[in-house]
UniProtKB/TrEMBL annotation:
InterPro entries: NAD(P)-bd_dom_sf, SDR_fam. Keywords: Oxidoreductase. The lineage of its organism: Bacteria, Bacillati, Actinomycetota, Actinomycetes, Kitasatosporales. Gene3D superfamilies: NAD(P)-binding Rossmann-like Domain. This is Oxidoreductase.
Length: 308
């Protein structure tokens, strides 16, 4: 992986990619670079205004790019179902589960789930399950879930998935990122048992400058914290372009292993894509199975194609 960059992304001509949260930050860069290599990219975003503008910007930046907006609100399972039902292609090569929220004040989704768990994990769990028949029908398809090095802060609490007993924003965020990795682990295991050639992997951007860090301070009107986040992005963080590289690697590079975790090479913080350390609880089969069962129950999305 040494020195791997966006120029190494293989030709994507004739392929279709869905990227969630592609209107800005990491998702926008991933969508743009996939389009640059010839993929038809579907920008799955909550805001039609921002999503359509992002698709137009990609077309303006990349000659010949094919980019389109489709509405998807991961905090509303009805919207997730509508997106999957309206997906109009009979194949899907790459699904990048990128969208997310971080360290927000306590809130709930349209379906009553704690926002970070509901958006970061349950929304993507449901989306992947609903698109699974199309992914299975596409030879060599991939699913990439974007986690974070922050997953190391906390394991999921199966008995309190929605943080109803006590809400601590950073712990809730870490748990949602652990859930992303447990989802990848369990989905990879189930796909292997069924002999499917869908590759499901995880990636993280290290510390990359995006608008994610400033979302919570803006919501709460905490100007000083917002300014500190902005300073950190300018002084310490790597660019969104650099942060997107591990995601692009997991989505396109030859030989990516199922259940692998790719991140920046230098201390999981910055640098070229490399195999990343992950907490041992993210490869716990028993916890993965319990989270899977809970996720199916909470979302109402059953992965019937992978039933024994």
């Amino acid at each position: 992986m040494s020195g791997w960059n966006e120029k190494a992304v293989p030709d994507q001509s004739g392929r279709i990619a869905v990227v969630t949260g592609a209107n800005s930050g990491l998702g926008y860069v991933v969508a743009r670079e996939l389009a640059r290599k010839g993929a038809r990219v579907v920008l799955a975003c909550r805001s039609e205004v921002r999503g359509s503008a992002a698709a137009d910007r990609i077309v303006a930046e990349v000659p010949g790019a094919i980019a389109e907006f489709a509405r998807l609100d991961l905090g509303d399972l009805g919207s997730v179902r509508e997106f999957a039902a309206s997906y109009r292609y009979d194949y899907l090569d790459v699904l990048v589960n990128n969208a997310g929220v971080m360290a927000l004040p306590y809130g709930t989704t349209a379906d009553g789930f704690e926002t970070q768990f509901g958006v970061n994990h349950l929304g993507h769990f449901a989306l992947t399950g609903l698109l699974l028949p199309t992914l299975l029908a596409t030879r060599g398809s991939r699913v990439v879930s974007v986690s974070s090095g922050m997953h190391a802060v906390a394991n999921v609490d199966i008995d309190d998935l929605n943080s109803e007993r006590r809400y601590r924003r950073w712990i809730a965020y870490a748990r949602s990122k652990t859930a992303n990795l447990l989802f990848v682990h369990e989905l990879a295991r189930r796909l292997a048992e069924h002999g499917a050639d869908v590759v499901v992997a995880a990636a993280h951007p290290g510390y990359a400058a995006t608008n994610l860090q400033g979302a919570a301070p803006r919501m709460e009107g905490r100007r000083l914290r917002g300014r500190l986040m902005d300073i950190g992005n300018r002084v310490v963080a790597q660019s969104a372009e650099a942060g997107a590289l591990p995601i692009l690697y997991a989505a396109t590079a030859p030989g990516v292993r199922p259940d692998s975790f790719t991140g920046p090479s230098f201390m999981m913080w910055r640098g070229a894509p490399a195999a990343s350390w992950r907490a041992p609880w993210t490869i716990d089969d028993a916890v993965g199975e319990r989270l899977w069962a809970a996720s199916e129950r909470l979302t109402g999305v059953a992965y019937d194609q992978l039933k024994v």
